């Protein structure tokens, strides 16, 4: 998600205790090319953050393009899962036959594993969005960045029942060369965005829709949120944007890997 006022993000108070955990990573879960089938064994707490045979490195560059080509768009949903808003977002996506990429905060995934499994079962993809949504990640030590990325990877994988995140999106876009390299070594393509819908600011449904329509020429990856407050405007905006995209000849896909 875009930076929202700086600081350590709106999850900071809620997950202060999580920041003290040791660096952990997903171990021997089955790597899936599409987050549609849950398989493999869940990683064990305390597994070391080292490469394993089922993890294949991906490109370290920040992905923006869509696997649907020139007329493709990527719907990305940040900061959840949330017990109120994620189910509503899933309902809208299902209504219009759209698959999306859910960029999940580790503590949220850990708190709501049922929702993580629903996201996977619906054919959507998972993205690591750090443990605590610290938008100052690019100013933190490498050890801290590792903890945030690898612990979130573990939390999301465990919550999903064994499906690993395929991407890593830095909170607020606060990537570093180190965090990109680390994520890519764990099979998570760094993920950017081209169109910030500004839905996090709750400017009104009309404003969210207008922002997307105006800025879509900037590129195919669209940023929305399903947590962090009242997301009713986001739900209604998606209900208008998704059919509009189809009318304009766009197809919804996934970010390239």
- Helicity level, as a percent range? 25-40%
Uncertain runs? 4-53
Give the mean pLDDT. 85
Helix count equals 7
Work out the strand percent. 5-15%
Which series of helices and strands comes N to C?
EHEHHEHEHEEHEHE
What is the overall shape? globular
How far do the termini sit from each other?
A: 19 Å
Number of strands: 8
Architecture overview:
The chain has helices at residues 85-95, 106-111, 113-121, 142-160, 177-185, 205-215, 232-247, and strands at 72-78, 101-104, 125-128, 167-168, 189-190, 195-196, 221-225, 251-253. The protein is of the alpha/beta class and 257 residues long. The model is unreliable at 4-53 (pLDDT under 50). The longest helix is centred in the middle third of the chain and has 19 residues, at 142-160. GO terms for molecular function: hydrolase activity, acting on carbon-nitrogen (but not peptide) bonds. Keywords: Hydrolase. It holds the Pfam family Polysacc_deac_1. One of its GO terms (biological process) is carbohydrate metabolic process. It comes from Streptomyces phaeofaciens.
SSE inventory with pairings:
Blueprint: E1 72-78, H1 85-95, E2 101-104, H2 106-111, H3 113-121, E3 125-128, H4 142-160, E4 167-168, H5 177-185, E5 189-190, E6 195-196, H6 205-215, E7 221-225, H7 232-247, E8 251-253
Parallel strand pairs: 1-2, 1-7, 1-8, 2-3, 3-4, 4-5, 6-7
Helix pairs in contact: 1-7, 3-4, 4-5, 6-7
InterPro entries: Glyco_hydro/deAcase_b/a-brl, NODB_dom, Polysacc_deacetylase_ArnD
Protein name: Hydrolase
GO biological process, one term: carbohydrate metabolic process
């Amino acid at each position: 998600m875009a930076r929202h006022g700086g600081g350590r993000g709106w999850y900071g108070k809620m997950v202060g205790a999580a920041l003290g955990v040791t660096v952990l990573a997903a171990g021997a879960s089955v790597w899936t090319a599409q987050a549609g089938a849950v398989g493999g064994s869940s990683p064990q707490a305390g597994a070391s953050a080292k490469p394993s045979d089922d993890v294949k490195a991906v490109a370290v560059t920040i992905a923006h393009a869509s696997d649907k080509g020139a007329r493709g768009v990527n719907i990305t949903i940040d900061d959840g899962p949330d017990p109120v808003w994620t189910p509503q977002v899933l309902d809208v996506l299902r209504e219009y036959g759209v698959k999306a990429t859910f960029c999940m905060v580790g503590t949220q995934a850990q708190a709501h594993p049922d929702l993580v499994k629903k996201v996977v079962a619906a054919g959507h993809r998972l993205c690591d969005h750090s443990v605590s949504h610290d938008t100052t990640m690019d100013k933190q030590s490498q050890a801290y960045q590792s903890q945030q990325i690898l612990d979130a990877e573990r939390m999301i994988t465990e919550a999903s029942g064994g499906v690993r995140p395929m991407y890593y999106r830095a909170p607020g876009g606060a990537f570093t060369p180190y965090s990109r390299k680390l994520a890519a070594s764990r099979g998570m393509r760094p993920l950017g965005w081209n169109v910030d819908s500004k839905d996090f600011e709750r400017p009104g449904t009309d404003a969210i829709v207008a922002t997307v329509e105006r800025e879509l020429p900037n590129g195919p990856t669209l940023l929305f949120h399903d947590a962090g407050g009242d997301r009713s405007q986001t739900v209604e905006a998606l209900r208008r944007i998704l059919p509009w995209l189809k009318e304009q000849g766009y197809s919804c896909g996934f970010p390239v890997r």
